[in-house]
Amino acid sequence: MGDRQFLLTLRIILVTFTAGALLFALNSKSTMYEMVQNAYNVTLAGAFVPLVAGAYWKRANTQGAMASVVLGIGTWLAFSQLAPDTLVPANLIGLFMSVVGMVLGSLAPSIIANRGHSIEAALHQAQAHAAASSHHAHKHHP
């Protein structure tokens, strides 16, 4: 995917997500506080573990991230709807299951192909691009 297509895709996703969030907010009976709390719960149960594991655990992969998101958010939603008065809050149970999903999904035989690059590879590519740009600029401007 080229830069222009990637930028267009990001813009489409942003507009679609914003429209969905607006429709949800307009049709929700929740207070503003509850909506913000749920937004943080989704982030905690579904995004925190894949982000941290992707940055610091070399064995983390796409399959583990997908399992982490599905188990984390699925568990949080299930416990918040079916057992809202548990001793441990539903968002922390979702966080725990997100960790379980990341570990099991990453260590299991690969079914889902890895996509993207490691942070190290991305940094190396950015440094190489910067060095090439710097070399190119110095070559044309003595």
TrEMBL record:
Identify the Pfam families for this entry. SSF
Q: Which InterPro entries match?
A: Na/Glc_symporter_sf, Na/solute_symporter, Sodium:Solute_Symporter
What are the subcellular locations of this protein? Answer: Membrane
A single cellular component GO annotation? plasma membrane
Q: Which UniProt keywords apply?
A: Membrane, Transmembrane, Transmembrane helix, Transport
Entry membrane topology = Multi-pass membrane protein
Chain ranges passing through the membrane? 7-26, 38-57, 64-82, 88-108
**Which domain of life does this protein belong to?**
Eukaryota
Show the coiled coil region(s): none
A GO molecular function held by the record: transmembrane transporter activity
Q: Which family does it belong to?
A: Belongs to the sodium:solute symporter (SSF) (TC 2.A.21) family.
Record's protein name: Sodium/solute symporter
Query: What species is given as this protein's source?
Result: Daphnia magna
**Where is the organism placed in the taxonomic lineage, from the top?**
Eukaryota, Metazoa, Ecdysozoa, Arthropoda, Crustacea
